[in-house]
Design brief:
Length: about 220
């Protein structure tokens, strides 16, 4: 599969490198000659030039590619022009990197395949990973009910996820009581930055489902008898 990557910034480089490692042909276009020289080995063909220029794209071998990724960073105008140029070459599957919701809305009007918002997607994934601790806590109780004991995989070590978020460039806030949650959430929504709320949960909590509830109560009574 031949894929065009416009822009060899951090995002574009990792897309290109991963695609090459998966065995695909990658044609990369980058204005900065130093970046072309530095990352050429992570592409099939790296060309220095303007990724919004249809003539250069055609000469680079973009025509006939199955897909394209426009990773021109915060330059919305270049992203739009590159998208239009790629479409003129007949490429229908086009993914564009955006850095804000407004940019995503602008690209939606061009009917691109998808607008990729790396910071938002990384934050959402991290948030799900944080809240999955409760899901694993439920798993511990499920194992107790079915097997009479639980595996060590259900044990959690203290981890400061708010600190991890800050280390990744996000805003991290630890929530240790129910009263802290709404104020922290309101503040996060009012700010124009990615925020991770690390909510501490009860490690002994289990789902209020009748099937579990009755069985767990019986198991716990046996243990305390």
């Amino acid at each position: 599969m031949r894929i065009v990557v416009v822009g060899l910034g951090n995002f574009g480089v990792w897309v290109s490198r991963t695609l090459v490692e998966l065995g695909h042909e990658v044609v990369a276009i980058e204005r900065d000659g130093a970046l072309v020289d530095r990352y050429a080995e992570w592409t099939t063909r790296a060309v220095q030039g303007d990724g919004t220029d249809p003539v250069l794209l055609r000469r680079a071998g973009a025509a006939g590619a199955e897909a394209a990724v426009v990773a021109t960073g915060d330059d919305l105008a270049s992203t739009i022009l590159a998208t239009l140029a790629l479409r003129d070459l007949g490429i229908r599957e086009i993914y564009t990197k955006v850095s804000s919701v407004n940019e995503a809305r602008a690209l939606e009007a061009l009917d691109v395949t998808d607008e990729i918002f790396p910071e938002r997607e990384a934050a959402i994934e991290l948030a799900h990973r944080l809240t999955s601790r409760g899901v694993l806590g439920y798993q511990k109780d499920a194992e107790d009910v079915k097997f009479g004991r639980h595996t060590s995989a259900c044990q959690f070590s203290p981890v400061d996820h708010a600190a991890i978020a800050r280390a990744c460039g996000c805003r991290g806030v630890s929530i240790r009581s129910a009263g802290e949650y709404l104020p922290a959430l309101r503040e996060a929504l009012s700010l124009n930055e990615t925020t991770v709320l690390d909510v501490y949960t009860d490690p002994e909590a289990y789902p209020p489902i009748t099937l579990f509830d009755e069985k767990l109560d019986a198991v716990r009574k046996q243990r305390t008898a």
